[in-house]
TrEMBL record:
Domain of life, source organism: Bacteria
Protein name per Swiss-Prot or TrEMBL: Uncharacterized membrane protein YczE
InterPro entries hit by this protein: YczE/YyaS-like
Transmembrane segments: 43-63, 70-91, 97-123
Keyword list, A-Z: Membrane, Transmembrane, Transmembrane helix
PANTHER family cross-referenced by the UniProt entry: INTEGRAL MEMBRANE PROTEIN (PTHR40078:SF1), INTEGRAL MEMBRANE PROTEIN-RELATED (PTHR40078)
Length: 199
């Protein structure tokens, strides 16, 4: 369990850092973060606080879907937004394009590694992932569910003033293949009965 917890919290911290890097790059964010930023700008809260509040609201949508949160789900609600705000506090705004591109690339890579770590820990999905899998479990295509959710939050975030740009496209194109590379390598296999736990 200690190894799983270490991976979980390392992944969640890295996820928050990755979001902070992409915000500072100011070249466009992933769909959910366009939404978070748009809401934050409109209501005057930090983006990290909006990330956490959105997670709570999404978690409430699990109730009719009969999804059960895990330790990782609850930790996700608390950790990611706090680390995002901390990262933004530490990183200054940048004007030059080259370092902003570097931040974007680093943010996308860190996001993929973070996803591999916290999902691979097997201690519960993040609220947004759980919403997607909960809807898919009701007989809908997971690809269509994910696409529908992300297009919806992207559109709302854009209308609210969230950052849409080349980074949004880069994230959309890169995150799936990158997670596909990192997730199998970072997933902790379940222990078998021979190793001391029930199969």
């Amino acid at each position: 369990m200690s190894s799983r917890l270490l991976r979980l919290f390392t992944g969640l911290v890295l996820f928050g850092v990755s979001l902070g890097l992409m915000v500072r790059a100011d070249l466009g964010l992933g769909p959910w973060d366009v939404f978070h930023q748009g809401v934050a700008d409109r209501i005057g809260l930090s983006i990290g606080l909006v990330v956490n509040l959105t997670a709570v609201v999404v978690l409430l949508l699990w109730i009719p879907l009969r999804q059960r949160p895990g330790i990782g789900t609850v930790a996700n609600v608390v950790v990611v937004g706090l680390v995002t705000d901390g990262t933004l506090w530490l990183l200054p705004d940048l004007d030059a394009l080259a370092p902003r591109i570097a931040l974007l690339v680093a943010g996308i890579l860190a996001n993929a590694v973070a996803t591999g770590l916290y999902v691979g820990a097997g201690l519960g999905p993040g609220p947004r992932d759980g919403l997607m899998t909960g809807l898919a479990a009701r007989g809908h295509s997971i690809r269509l569910v994910r696409t529908g959710i992300e297009l919806t939050v992207l559109a709302i975030g854009f209308l609210l003033g969230g950052s849409v740009g080349v980074g949004t496209i880069a994230y959309a194109l890169a995150i799936g293949p990158l997670v596909g590379v990192f997730l199998p390598r970072l997933t902790i296999a379940p222990r078998t009965a021979a190793e001391g736990e029930p199969a």
